[in-house]
# Entry
Amino acid sequence: MRVLVVGSGGREHALVWKIAQSKLCAKLFCAPGNGGISQIAECIDIKADDIAGLLEFARKEKIDLTVVGPEKALALGMVDEFTKAGLKIFGPNKLAANLEASKVFSKELMAKYKVPTADFKVFDSPDAAKKYIQVNGAPCVVKADGLAAGKGVVVAKTVDEAKDAVTSMMQDKVFGDAGKKIIIEECLIGQEASILVITDSKIMVALASAQDHKRIFDHDQGENTGGMGAYSPAPIVTVDILKEVMDKIIHRTIDGLAKEGIDYRGVLYAGIMLTKEGPQALEFNVRFGDPETQAILPRLKSDLVEVMLAASVGKLSKIRTLEWDRRACVCVVCAAGGYPGDYKKGKVISGLEDVQKLKDVVVFHAGTELRIINDVGQRQEQEYLTSGGRVLGVTGLGTTIKEAINKTYQAVEKIKFEEMQFRRDIGRRALG
Ligand code: AMP
Ligand code: GLY
# Structure
């Protein structure tokens, strides 16, 4: 099969890495990809949300399966366009992608189909929202309705903080139209976990559980980021909890969508808060998590292409279960200095060759580019430069989570670039 992966981050590198191992995959492309990805797939210079460009490429290259990484292309209807053209693609269609693209849609669906989630109210006027905050007090959570690159959620400890969030989303329009409507919801307390399932809308197959670390600094301090690390499994997700999540959150949501006439195919990511009252859904993403995917896929023994293909054509009943490596996996993100704020690019990365020699360690590139240097003797040499905020996801497997942590940090210590920053406590939560 000829496979195309859409996207350019660490998640896509992990997908490409896993897909390349499939016996079904004969040729692999990635659009646009990155420096690391270019070592295992042919990178194509087409942006991840250029649906017309990708469609033309897929037709011309006779792509048998397209796998979409980022949510934007899904929300724009990429799957609908490919399906219309008779091309197989793994991901939800535009209506189903609303589960992530519109928090109002998602919360209203959850309320209708009794999916446990925080109590909420929808507002389209800033005055009404602020009045509500004044009466109901803090803490509360303010969420922009639309896509906001992971920045549209404010967990407000005080009334002023919550009102400021309303001002910035609805009046200063920092997220543009994404803040036209907002949600104010109850603040839940508990531990978080990510549950990802692959579904064809009838069968739901859970991937191994994971937990990510969203804050920039150790001990969950500082600003929210795209994710500074992850580990799998999340010991806090017991068999019983997983069953409850599947029954009350995943099934009710996908069955609910089906009742609304919406067929969900692809991967569904549920952000869960494990509260005293049981698991509650915080949010849905309609794609693989980043960096959860980097910690989950190295543990997957089954053929991912087979599973994604089955889901995309509605034949997941043929698969039903996945086989997992029992070992734990930890992914530590090495980020550019200044991230998640302004940061510099173009720094030379060293130590990657040393890390390649380590067993059970793999480095997924998130923001790198490859520079070819031809030395005098015409021997081709290459080096990697940083090209993004999150640069690398260093990933290690170990018999125990402790061993996985040690192995991963051993590798991280070998990697250097100017102003590199990383958290030193990834996975520690799982040690109890
Ligand atoms: P989201 O972008 O929806 O994943 O939200 C980002 C983060 O905000 C989540 O990972 C949680 O840490 C936090 N969060 C979202 N909703 C709530 C809630 N209702 N109560 C407490 N924390 C929340
Ligand atoms: N790790 C969180 C996300 O992918 O949205």
In short: The mean pLDDT is 96. DSSP finds 13 helices and 23 strands in the chain. The first strand starts at residue 2 and ends at 7.
